[in-house]
Each structure stands twice: as structure tokens, then as C-alpha cells.
Design brief:
The structure is a single chain. The chain has 608 residues and is an alpha+beta fold. It is built from 25 helices and 19 strands. The strands form five sheets. It has a five-stranded antiparallel sheet with strand order 2-1-5-4-3, sandwiched between helices. It has a five-stranded antiparallel sheet with strand order 7-6-10-9-8, sandwiched between helices. The radius of gyration is 47 Å and the shape is rod-shaped.
Length: 608
């Protein structure tokens, strides 16, 4: 009998799972046990390459890892391989391979012995009861990353049946981000790294819901370091993470509400201060009663109101009166002094900003319009709003929407607007300094505040009111106004209106001794530290009044005296505006209208 044939018969009769391949890697014969285990005949197997029997992942590993290593070393030991039998079932094996070479090192043939992981079923049986009874999310994957076992709780969480998941890649159940993280690790690297604990991952349920989980892995090996399985326990932390996110949002909301409350508190303090400084609307003159009638008519409506009047006439007090009589009275009245805001901060002040919107924006800031939501916003000195911002203000009035600086989303707001100005906005519109559409939107219902000089005996009532208030604040007895003082106050022009009257009364109380009130209108500037202007030459000794021309000349000289006393400094403590009881902007306007300018400094003459 042919010796080679005898060897062939002997090889086929071996009880092991084995193959014999030629130098090209094609199967030349197999043991009967191998053919039977995979369900093929010898004739069907001969001429095939082993990777043709392998699963897709295992075939790739054979081509890219195992065969290159075999060519380098001439042998393989216990490498994991997964074949498919004739029916498509998975057969997990450990392969050991040795080759025979000629004197030139060329491969002649190779023998591969396969050891089936026979105890796999036994191991799986040990875990089967655990997987079915445990309340934990457990799954097992093989060297290719395919699921071989899952717990009932795992199936319940993800919404699958066992038949739908066994044999599928674990990657099919991860989000794209978690899949990218998992693919950075090969199975070999997982084994080398050892047990892993609490790796954050995201899994996708059958209905598309995302679960946040913490995965802990354990790699089980055989005695020869061959991979048996990778067991993974997952802890569902979705609700915990959502609760933490809600808590972070709550803290953020608390911080925002805290800021809003603090700012509302500041505004309430400001409102109280306004009330204490101006008191109630005092007077009975026809001019005042006409204004009050208009307040009553418009207060209960949502219409925008434009309050017009000279400086110091009490426009802010009128705004408070309108708000107090409206159906928004229990909501905030937020004041914005448009004349005091730098141009570059107008938008942030009005609408707020988000952190990082610009240099210095270290945290989110709520704007005045959002603070006034549900209530009223009072735009004092509205004529000072920059032209570039007027369009955004118009949008809020028309569409009730705005965006914070640095934020994309729009916010809605329900605000009633009351504006005030001492400027002629119609002239500003003609000069292109104020938008016409914004002017008409603001002036739906104009209210003219009469100057003090047109309110007749109201000046006496106001003087008595301020006298009582100031004396109470200073802890002094209230002196009586004499008839001569009352007559002098009626005759005075009061260019600073109510604000000037209050300042005059306050200075008089400070300078008074005992029960006598020291009140001399022509001496008031001197009492305030201003040089007394000279008496006009045209004033007759026996005439206690001035003509209109004399009054204007006296007022001009009075302004110059105040400016010289303040060294021509207009604003700030001790400035001319402060000495006269006027706003700096009002003083500047009067200087311009009277042609008053600071004299040029004389240069010293050099001598040789």
C-alpha cells in the first residue's frame, strides 16, 4: 500500500479536529471529525481556504493577524477562530498551526489542530440562570464583539427579544459617540488592560431612546491565555444623569432668579426713593388738573405714553401715577435713565447679555425689558437713545420680542412703555436724530407736564409740602411761610421747576435759625455758594419786580456767576449744575441758547 495513502487515511481517522493545507493555504485533507463537526464532506472541503469557513470578523483576523504571524514564526498557538457550520451555526475554536518547509524556507504544507471550546456550553449554562434571574443589565461578547448571552433585564431595558440580539455586534446597540469610543480598543487591548469599571457609554433602545450606562468588563481566559469571553455589566444611570442635569438647570435658574430679584429689589428701592423725594402730586391749578385728567384717561389702557415737559417738572412722578392706576400696578415699574447709559452698553442694558458676549461679560445678565415683563418700563430721557438702537426698541414695541446680546433665540415680553423727554422730538425727527416710526409708536398718548411758572398757587402748596418734609427729615420745627415769601415765590420764574423749588426750600431750612425761615430768592444763589449777580441798572428802587428782559439778563448773569464759582466745571459735586440745582444737560442747553461759552485761556506773554 502507498505510504502516502496510509498517512492520509491515518490523518483522517484522528479523533481531533484538524486540517492539512498546502503551501498556498488550500485544504488538502481534513479529519473525519472536522468534516462531521462542520457538516461538510471531504470533497466539499478540499480546495477551500480555512478563512472561507470563518465568520466575517474571524476571516479578517486570519488574513490580517494570524497568517502574517505564521509566515514570520512558522507556528501559531491557541488563536481564537470562529467558523460557520453548514447550517450557519457558529463554532468557536482555538487553532494551533505548524508548518513544514523545504531547504529554501518555502512552505510545503501545514497542519492545523482545532480545539473546540467544549466547556463553553457548560460555562454558559452556569450563567444562564443568573442572566435570567438577575435584576442587572448583563451581556457577554466573544472575541469578535458579538453578543453570545444577555440578561432578561438587559432585554427589558432595550426592548428586544433574545432572538433579535444574539449573534449581533454590540456596536449595533451603541450611539455613534460611544461606538467611536469603543472602537478605539481592540479585544486584545481590553484583555491587556484588565478589568474596566464604570466606563460611561450610551446605548440605544429598540424605539430609539438613548440610555446612559456605566459599563464594567471582565475578560475570562483559558489556562493558555486564549480568550473565552468578555462579560459586561451595565448600570443604567439615565435618570440619575437627567436628575443631575435638572439640578444644574435648577441652580442656573436660581442664579438667574436671584439676579432678577436683586435687581427688582434695587428698582423697588429706587421707586421708594422717588416716592420719598417727590411725594404725591401736589397742586390744584387748572394746568395740573388738566394733566391729571389725561392721566386718569390713559392709565387703565395698555397704550404707550409720552410724557413731555421741562426738566424738573416731575415727569417721573407722572409715570409712577400712570403705573399705579393701571391694571399692572402690582407688577414692577422699571426705570431706565437713557441719558446715563454709555452708547456701547445700551443694548445690553435694555435686553441683557449672555456670558462671554463681550469683554467683561462674566455671567448672564437680565435686561431691563425682561425685568419689566408683565409690568411697565419707564424710559426717561428717551431722546438720548442712540439712533442705531432705536430700530431694536421699535421691534420690541411692535413684536414684543428681543434677543439678549450674544444669544440666538428670541424672547417674548409683555411690557407697557412710558417714555419721557424734555426735548422736542418732532424737531429731532426732522433733524434725522430720532426715528419717525418710533416717535409715533411712543407718542400714542402724549401727556404735557406744565412748568411750575404756569401753575399759579401750586408753588405755595409745593413749598409748604417740601418745607414740612425737609424739616421732618432734619428733625427741626416747621417755620411758617410769610406772605412776602409767598409773593416772591409766585413772581419767580423757576427755571429749574419743582426740583429747583425743593433745593431752595432745603437750603433755606439749613440756613434758618429758630422759627424764622430765611428765604430770599435773589439771595438763594449766594446761599448756595454762588456769587450774587449784580442788580440790573434798570431796576427802579421802588419797583419790586423785573421785566422779561431783565429776568433773562439776570438769569444769564446768574449762570455765569455759578460757572465762575465752579471754575467752569458743569457736572459733578460742586459743579455749576449742582450749585444751581439743575441737570448738567439742562445747564448745557441753557448755556447754548444764551450764547454762554467758557472764555479762552490767555497765553502768558514771554519777555526777553
Amino acid at each position: 500500500m502507498d505510504t502516502r495513502l496510509d498517512q492520509h487515511v491515518l490523518f483522517r481517522s484522528l479523533p481531533a479536529l484538524a486540517t492539512l493545507t498546502d503551501g498556498e493555504g488550500r485544504i488538502t485533507t481534513v479529519t473525519d471529525a472536522f468534516a462531521k463537526r462542520l457538516g461538510y464532506t471531504l470533497e466539499e472541503l478540499c480546495g477551500m481556504q480555512p478563512e472561507q469557513l470563518a465568520t466575517e470578523a474571524s476571516a479578517r483576523r486570519i488574513r490580517e493577524e494570524h497568517l502574517p504571524r505564521f509566515r514570520r514564526t512558522g507556528r501559531l498557538e491557541h488563536v481564537p477562530i470562529a467558523f460557520r457550520d453548514r447550517s450557519g451555526g457558529r463554532v468557536s475554536l482555538l487553532a494551533s498551526m505548524v508548518g513544514e518547509h523545504d531547504e529554501h524556507g518555502m512552505l510545503l504544507r501545514a497542519v492545523t489542530i482545532y480545539t473546540e471550546l467544549a466547556d463553553r456550553a457548560r460555562v454558559e449554562r452556569q450563567y444562564r440562570d443568573l442572566y435570567q434571574s438577575t435584576p442587572a443589565m448583563l451581556h457577554t461578547i466573544d472575541a469578535d464583539g458579538n453578543l453570545t448571552a444577555v440578561s432578561d433585564h438587559w432585554l427589558e431595558k432595550l426592548g428586544y427579544t433574545r432572538e433579535e440580539v444574539i449573534g449581533r455586534s454590540i456596536m449595533d446597540f451603541l450611539t455613534d459617540q460611544s461606538r467611536e469610543s469603543a472602537m478605539r480598543w481592540t479585544v486584545a487591548e481590553v484583555i491587556a488592560a484588565g478589568d474596566q469599571k464604570n466606563m460611561p457609554r450610551q446605548m440605544v433602545t429598540k424605539n430609539g431612546e438613548v440610555l446612559d450606562v456605566l459599563m464594567s468588563t471582565r475578560a475570562e481566559r483559558d489556562v493558555r491565555n486564549g480568550l473565552i469571553t468578555l462579560r459586561v455589566a451595565s448600570k443604567d444611570v439615565t435618570e440619575r444623569n437627567r436628575a443631575a442635569a435638572r439640578l444644574r438647570e435648577a441652580y442656573k435658574e436660581i442664579a438667574t432668579l436671584k439676579e432678577e430679584l436683586e435687581r427688582e429689589r434695587d428698582y423697588l428701592r429706587e421707586e421708594i426713593s422717588v416716592s420719598m423725594n417727590f411725594g404725591r402730586i401736589v397742586g390744584e391749578s387748572p394746568a395740573l388738573k388738566g394733566m391729571l385728567a389725561r392721566i386718569e384717561a390713559v392709565a387703565a389702557t395698555p397704550a404707550s405714553v409720552l410724557i413731555v415737559g421741562e426738566t424738573g417738572t416731575g415727569k417721573e412722578l407722572v409715570a409712577h401715577a400712570i403705573h399705579a392706576r393701571s391694571d399692572r400696578a402690582d407688577q414692577p415699574l422699571v426705570k431706565v435713565n437713557c441719558a446715563s447709559i454709555p452708547d456701547e452698553l445700551f443694548e445690553s442694558e435694555f435686553f441683557g447679555h449672555v456670558r462671554g458676549a463681550f469683554t467683561g461679560a462674566h455671567r448672564d445678565r437680565v435686561g431691563r425689558f425682561q425685568l419689566a415683563d408683565g409690568g411697565t418700563i419707564f424710559l426717561d430721557e428717551v431722546g438720548e437713545i442712540p439712533l442705531a438702537l432705536q430700530g431694536k426698541l421699535l421691534r420690541v414695541l411692535q413684536e414684543k420680542e428681543f434677543e439678549r446680546v450674544g444669544e440666538d433665540r428670541s424672547r417674548t415680553v409683555d411690557v407697557r412703555v412710558i417714555a419721557a423727554t424734555n426735548k422736542d422730538l418732532e424737531k429731532a425727527v426732522e433733524a434725522g436724530e430720532f426715528r419717525e416710526d418710533l416717535y409715533y409708536r411712543l407718542s400714542v398718548f402724549p401727556v404735557q407736564v406744565p412748568p411750575l411758572r404756569k401753575r399759579g398757587d401750586d408753588v405755595i402748596m409745593l413749598a409748604a409740602h417740601f418745607l414740612e418734609q425737609v424739616c421732618r427729615d432734619f428733625g427741626r420745627p416747621v417755620p411758617a411761610l410769610t406772605q412776602a415769601q409767598a409773593d416772591a415765590m409766585r413772581a419767580y420764574d423757576w427755571p429749574g421747576n419743582i426740583r429747583e423749588l425743593k433745593n431752595v426750600i432745603e437750603r433755606a431750612v439749613i440756613l434758618s435759625q429758630g422759627d424764622t425761615l430765611r428765604l430770599d430768592l435773589r439771595a438763594m444763589p449766594a446761599a448756595a455758594g454762588v456769587v450774587q449777580p449784580e442788580k440790573p441798572a434798570s431796576l427802579a428802587p421802588d419797583r419790586p419786580f423785573l421785566t422779561e428782559a431783565e429776568m433773562k439778563e439776570q438769569q444769564r448773569r446768574n449762570l455765569i456767576a455759578a460757572l465762575e464759582t465752579a471754575n467752569w466745571r458743569i457736572s459733578g459735586p460742586g459743579g455749576a449744575a449742582d450749585l444751581l440745582g439743575l441737570k448738567p444737560s439742562t445747564l448745557t442747553d441753557r448755556m447754548r441758547s444764551m450764547g454762554i461759552a467758557r472764555p479762552a485761556k490767555r497765553r502768558p506773554v514771554r519777555t526777553v
